[in-house]
């Protein structure tokens, strides 16, 4: 666990006034332990936050002064990093106005839209706190619940704490069902129950967050990268709120892309599944051939070749194409990393849309 820069100090208190007459030659001293003050950086990837950012920053402002968690820990939010991911609205101008109004607001300008995970990593790279919290811009998560995550992290000596919603996410039943199904499939395929219980509201040890942001390559799923370098991972119960007046930036197609990216970056187990599929196809082919020969010699059954041939060719052709497709996806991810494709590029000023034509 990373020690806070405001590490515990010991104050010396004299038992008697050294300037008074008759005071002892050496004054007694009483050590008094001062609880450490944990500094928290808050990272917010911004895509469509024009209507919600001011409300979110207003909720964070009280947390920029020293607070106490339910467990008695001292903490304060020292900065909120608003990472502009070049969305289609006027979030950039809102960020500029908030940065001019509040000293704790730090804008991070990306050169183009890189996606939520890359934007979050860009914010982590610029964070200076002992802990780094990540939160969405849509208002579902309450910034005050950082205290709950911090209590869980410090009391249980954890490096990474995810929010565990105690109520269903405020989306439609279809999206919630697909989300649960995708996480269940991921956990089963990868053999890791923790990987399916991540959440965008998380608290990460600051040193780990900055280290991950420094070396994480293009195409790596953020939570997969965190699982690579953390071992002590926990969850804390959090109640989700309704979304503010903000349309979701994720279509079902983009969510499917996130799911596929998660599968590709978690390791080589899907390739092993392809190997097993190929082995199963070979065994099935041998069984079909043995059954056909048995029927021909034992039962005098004529073997009609066209139907069985078409079925076998279609089955194995599909298996080969699927295997080649998955291998090609792995090669594409590897090629992007080898060629040095950047995960994100931080600019010195906001990238704005051009005038309408």
What does this structure look like?
The chain is of the alpha/beta class and 357 residues long. It folds into two domains: 37-265, Spore Coat Polysaccharide Biosynthesis Protein SpsA, Chain A (Alpha-Beta Complex); 269-338. Helices cover 43% and strands 17% of the residues. The chain has ten helices and eleven strands. It has helices spanning 53-60, 91-101, 116-126, 146-155, 173-190, 206-215, 222-229, 252-265, 269-297, 305-338; strands at 10-14, 29-33, 37-46, 67-68, 74-84, 105-110, 131-134, 160-165, 202-205, 233-238, 346-347. Strands 3, 4, 5, 6, 7, 8, 9, 10 and 11 form a nine-stranded mixed β-sheet that branches. Helix 3 (116-126) packs across helix 6. The longest helix is centred in the last third of the chain and has 34 residues, at 305-338.
CATH domain class of the largest domain? Alpha Beta
What is the makeup of the main sheet?
9 strands, mixed
What would CATH call the architecture of the largest domain? Alpha-Beta Complex
N- to C-terminal separation?
54 Å
Any idea what the radius of gyration is? Answer: 28 Å
Fraction of residues in β-strands: 15-25%
Please provide the count of β strands: 11
Q: Note the overall shape.
A: elongated
Low confidence ranges = 1-32
Instruction: Report helical residue fraction.
Output: 40-55%
The whole-number mean of residue pLDDT values reads 77
Order of helices and strands: EEEHEEHEHEHEHEHHEHHHE
Query: Helix segment count?
Result: 10
CATH H-level superfamily of the largest domain = Spore Coat Polysaccharide Biosynthesis Protein SpsA, Chain A
């Amino acid at each position: 666990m990373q020690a806070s820069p405001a590490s515990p100090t010991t104050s010396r208190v004299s038992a008697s006034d050294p300037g008074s007459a008759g005071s002892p030659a050496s004054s007694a001293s009483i050590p008094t332990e001062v609880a450490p003050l944990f500094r928290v950086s808050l990272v917010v990837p911004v895509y469509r936050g024009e209507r919600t950012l001011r409300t979110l920053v207003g909720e964070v402002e009280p947390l920029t002064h020293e607070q106490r968690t339910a467990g008695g820990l001292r903490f304060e939010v020292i900065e909120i990093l608003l990472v502009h991911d070049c969305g289609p609205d006027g979030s950039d101008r809102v960020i500029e106005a908030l940065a001019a109004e509040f000293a704790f607001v730090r804008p991070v300008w990306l050169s183009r839209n890189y996606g939520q995970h890359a934007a979050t990593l860009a914010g982590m790279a610029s964070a200076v706190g002992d802990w780094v919290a990540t939160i969405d811009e849509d208002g579902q998560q309450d910034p005050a619940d950082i205290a709950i995550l911090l209590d869980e992290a410090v009391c249980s000596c954890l490096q990474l704490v995810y929010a565990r919603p105690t109520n269903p996410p405020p989306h439609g039943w279809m999206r919630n069902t697909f989300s649960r199904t995708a996480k269940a499939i991921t956990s089963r395929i990868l053999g890791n129950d923790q990987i399916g219980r991540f959440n965008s509201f998380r608290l990460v040890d600051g040193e780990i967050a900055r280290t991950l942001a420094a070396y994480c390559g293009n195409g790596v799923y953020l939570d997969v990268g965190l699982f690579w370098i953390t071992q002590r991972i926990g969850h804390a119960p959090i109640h989700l709120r309704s979304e503010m007046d903000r349309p979701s930036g994720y279509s079902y197609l983009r969510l499917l892309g996130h799911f596929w990216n998660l599968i590709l970056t978690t390791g080589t187990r899907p390739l092993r599944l392809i190997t097993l599929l190929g082995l199963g196809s070979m065994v099935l082919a041998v069984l079909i051939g043995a059954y056909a020969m048995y029927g021909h010699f034992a039962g005098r059954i004529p073997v009609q070749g066209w139907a069985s041939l078409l079925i076998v060719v279609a089955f194995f052709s599909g298996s080969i194409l699927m295997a080649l497709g998955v291998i090609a996806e792995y090669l594409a991810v590897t090629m992007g990393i080898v060629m040095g494709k950047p995960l994100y590029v931080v600019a010195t000023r906001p990238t704005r849309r051009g005038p309408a034509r």
